[in-house]
Amino acid sequence: MSSSNPVIYFEIPVNDMKHAEQFYTNVFNFNFEKDDIDGYEMSLFPFEEKNSGITGALAKGDVYKPTKDGVIIYFKTEDINESLAKVLKNGGEILYPKKINEKYGFAVAEFEDSEGNRIALHETLKND
């Protein structure tokens, strides 16, 4: 069994690519690379092979259906409260407010994005 993280890529379903790109750019300051993969419109999240973590894309096509009922993707953030404020400012909705897990040293929250997907935030707590 490999000692690396098993998940390497994700796709977030969208109906309105331009609207979704604007939402994620405004909330996280992402720049996307556009591509067409197997006939599906993709906007790829930033990725550098040498860094840890995974990457993915906003994906539009007949097999992609936005939902709050499926897999939840966690985006790392330095400040959940700031990110949630940006979510609200850009038409998103808070689904699960910030909760702190002192035992493991992190906080999480969940929101609905511009397309109707449930997305989560993860913030590592600072040792003060």
What does this structure look like?
With 128 residues, the chain is of the alpha/beta class. It has one domain: 2,3-Dihydroxybiphenyl 1,2-Dioxygenase, domain 1, CATH 3.10.180.10. The protein has two helices and eight strands. The strands form two sheets. A four-stranded mixed sheet has the order 1-4-3-2, covered by helices on one side. A four-stranded mixed sheet has the order 5-8-7-6, covered by helices on one side. α1 packs antiparallel against α2. It is globular and about 50 Å long.
Task: Give a brief description.
The protein is an alpha/beta fold.
- Look at the structure and give the CATH class: Alpha Beta
Unreliable parts: none
What percent of the residues sit in helical stretches (DSSP H or I)? Answer: 10-25%
- What is the rounded distance between the termini? 37 Å
Q: Could you please say which CATH topology applies here? A: 2,3-Dihydroxybiphenyl 1,2-Dioxygenase, domain 1
The neighbouring-strand order within the major sheet is 1-4-3-2
Question: What gyration radius follows from the Cα positions, in whole Å?
Answer: 15 Å
